[in-house]
């Protein structure tokens, strides 16, 4: 399925070429991976319909979603998203895995889950997939039992916290040092973060986001569900530069760069 590019110039573009632009332009800083957010929203700005994101996007959106996964070293998501959307193997299509191999990437991207409390159950399909490699960023000292995926844990290097601080620390991890470890210890140069809103807010507040892919579906959720970013306010509105606008099946596909 092709997209109609409307900005910066007009033309037809495939999902594969549109997604390849991410890897072509990704320039990782020294101390962390290059990080792009990918989200889909309704025209009234909601990222869920009846609690899930699946009903928002069209077929073109799903194709671009999978092609973007095929471009990166790691795909990151918050525990809320992994729990709700029941994540499975990240790149299911063997042809896409073969293309990743030809491009010098691992056939499957590393899955990175952020869960302060480690409130995950091993029956999540991703954690039951023996071909998947998963790194869980967590403040918990526990480990999940019964996973068939290769699971590692990345914990903050902090002095033991006082009990009051422990609750606060469990609610929010400082992500920058953990991304630095992903870059230096796991060789991750590019990350696609698929949300959700709480994780997006944490990454944006720490200045760790380089790009936003946002697709806007011609739908109104008509409720007060979450938007792209939630949690404490950012330190002022984030100004972004519009890189590309595409359209397919009435859905808009916007790509923005965040300044640093
Ligand atoms: N439309 C879209 O593109 C899209 C994309 C993604 C998600 N969604 C929707 O968004 C909803 C989930 O929203 P959400 O905001 O709860 O999702 P989320 O950001 O994926 O998950 C929040 C959870 O992730 C962990 N977490 C995130 N940031 C953290 C940080 N800095 N430090 C420590 N832990 C952190 C915590 O896990 P623990 O509680 O385990 O400690 C937190 O409770 C779902 O309904 C999903 O369908 C929509």
Structure explained in plain terms:
The chain has one domain (22-257): Dihydrofolate Reductase, subunit A (3-Layer(aba) Sandwich). The longest helix has 11 residues, at 15-25. With 260 residues, it is α/β, with parallel strands linked by helices. Strand 10 and strand 11 (251-257) form a beta hairpin. The chain has helices at 15-25, 59-69, 79-85, 94-102, 163-171, 176-186, 197-205, and strands at 2-7, 11-14, 34-42, 74-78, 110-114, 133-137, 150-154, 190-193, 211-217, 241-248, 251-257. The chain starts with a strand and ends with a strand. It has an eleven-stranded mixed β-sheet with strand order 2-1-10-11-9-3-8-4-5-6-7. Helix 1 runs parallel beside helix 2 (59-69). The mean pLDDT is 94. The chain is built from seven helices and eleven strands. The structure holds NADP nicotinamide-adenine-dinucleotide phosphate.
Keywords for this entry:
single chain, 260 residues, alpha/beta, Dihydrofolate Reductase, subunit A, 11-stranded mixed beta sheet, 7 helices, 11 strands, 25% strand, globular, binds NADP nicotinamide-adenine-dinucleotide phosphate
